Amino acid sequence: MDSVFANVVQAPEDPILGVTVAYNKDPSPAKLNLGVGAYRTEEGKPIVLNVVRKAEQLLVNDPSHLKEYLPILGLADFNKLTAKLILGADSPAVLENRIATAQCLSGTGSLRVGSEFLARHYHQHTIYIPQPTWGNHPKVFTSGGLNVKSYRYYDPTTRGLDLQGLLEDLNAADAGSVVLFHACAHNPTGVDPTPEQWEQIRQLVRSKGLLPFFDSAYQGFASGSLDEDAQSVRMFVADGGECFIAQSYAKNMGLYGERVGALSIVCKAADVASRVESQLKLVVRPMYSNPPIHGASIVAKVLKDKDLYDEWTAELKGMADRIISMRQQLFDALTARGTPGDWSHIIKQIGMFTFTGLNAEQVSFMRNEYHIYMTSDGRISMAGLSSRTVPHLADAIHAAVTRVA
Ligand code: KET
C-alpha cells in the first residue's frame, strides 16, 4: 500500500548546515569545513572552554542543582545577568526594571519568540532585514508570522557598508516597521557600521518611529571585548527608546548544542515590561513549555562569579584573537602567491566570517578540486581555519580565481 506521505517531495539541504552534511560524506583526508560558523582550535578541533568545564563540575557536585522544570521564561538569575551583559550593569533600563527577558533556545529561538510576540502584539507586521543577511533570518521571521522586506546594506564594489542605500531604504520604510540589525560582526559580510554611522542610523530609526530588533550572536567575538561589541545596542537603549534583543551563547561561550540564549524586550516603563513578560509566557508555553536548564545554569554560574567571569573573558579574547590572526595569515598567503585581486577586505572585515567575493562556480571548484567546504555565497568561517590549513586554502583560492571565471 502507498504511504500517505507518498507525495512529500525531497527538501533541499539547509544552505549553511547542509555544507557540514556534504563535508561529512567526503572521504578525503585533506577536507576542510569552512561552512558553519563554529570555532575550531589551531588543531582544527571543536573546543569546550575550560571555564565551562569548571562550571559544569560545580553543578555536578552541587546537590541542590536539580533537573526540575524551569519557569516558562527560564532561569531568573540567568535572565537578569544576560540583560546586564548586553546592556551594561549600570544601564538605566536594567536599574529601572524596564526589560522583559525570556531564556530561549539560543539565538534562533530568541528571534523566533520575538517574532511571534510581535505578530501578536505589534501593529506593524513588516520586518526589514539587511541584504545580505544570515540565511535563516527570512525563514525565522516568516515562520514567526512577520512579512519580510530587505534594506540595502552591503556594496559589493567597495566591499563596505552601503550607508546611503541603508538610510534611503529605512527612510522609505512603512511607519513603525521592525528593523533587524546585527549587533556586531555582521554575518555574512563582516562589515559593521562605525559608531558615527550607527548614530546616523539611530537618529533615523527614532525619528521614523521604527522598532529596532538586534540579533547579538557574536558579542565578544568581533573585537574580543564584550563591552565594545555591545556598543550599538547600548546606543539605542541610552536614548530611552524601545528595542528587541536576541542573544546567543553558542559562539561566545562555545555552548552551541546547549541551545542557550535570551530574548530581551526593552520597554519605556516597568509596568509595560511586566505586562509584556506576562504575554511572552503565553507565546512560549504552547511552543516548548519552558527552556532547558543545563546551559543556562552554566552561563549563570560563569556570569555570577568574578573569577569564572574573568577566566571566560580571557578565553573569549583568545578565540577572537586567533580568528584575527587567521585573517592576517590568509591575507599574507595570498599576497605571497601574487593572487590577482585586492584581498585587503580579509583583514578589514570583522567577526567569524570573511565574505571573500568568490562566486558560486569558484566555491564549487574549490569543493571539487580541493575538498574545501564553504557556503555558496563565498563566505568562509575564519574560525574553522588554522595555521596548518591556511596554505591549502590559499592554494585553492589562487587556483579558483586564476582558473574559474
Ligand atoms: N544570528 C546570526 C547572525 C547567526 O549567524 C546565527 C548562527 C544565529 C543567529 C543563531 O545561532 P544559535 O546557534 O541559534 O544561537 N549562525 C551560524 C550557524 C547557523 O547557521 O545556525 C552560521 O551562520 O554558520
UniProtKB/TrEMBL annotation:
GO terms for biological process: amino acid metabolic process. Residues 31-397 form the Aminotransferase class I/classII large domain. It holds the Pfam family Aminotran_1_2. It catalyses: L-aspartate + 2-oxoglutarate = oxaloacetate + L-glutamate. SUPFAM superfamilies: PLP-dependent transferases. The keyword Transferase applies. Its EC number is 2.6.1.1. Its cofactor is pyridoxal 5'-phosphate. PROSITE patterns: AA_TRANSFER_CLASS_1 (PS00105). Gene3D superfamilies: Aspartate Aminotransferase, domain 1 (3.90.1150.10), Type I PLP-dependent aspartate aminotransferase-like (Major domain) (3.40.640.10). One of its GO terms (molecular function) is L-aspartate:2-oxoglutarate aminotransferase activity. Keywords: Aminotransferase, Pyridoxal phosphate, Transferase. One of its GO terms (cellular component) is mitochondrion. InterPro entries: Aminotransferase_I/II_large, Asp_trans, NHTrfase_class1_PyrdxlP-BS, PyrdxlP-dep_Trfase, PyrdxlP-dep_Trfase_major, PyrdxlP-dep_Trfase_small. In eukaryotes there are cytoplasmic, mitochondrial and chloroplastic isozymes. Homodimer. Belongs to the class-I pyridoxal-phosphate-dependent aminotransferase family. NCBIfam families: PRK09257.1 (NF006719). This is Aspartate aminotransferase. It comes from Spinacia oleracea.
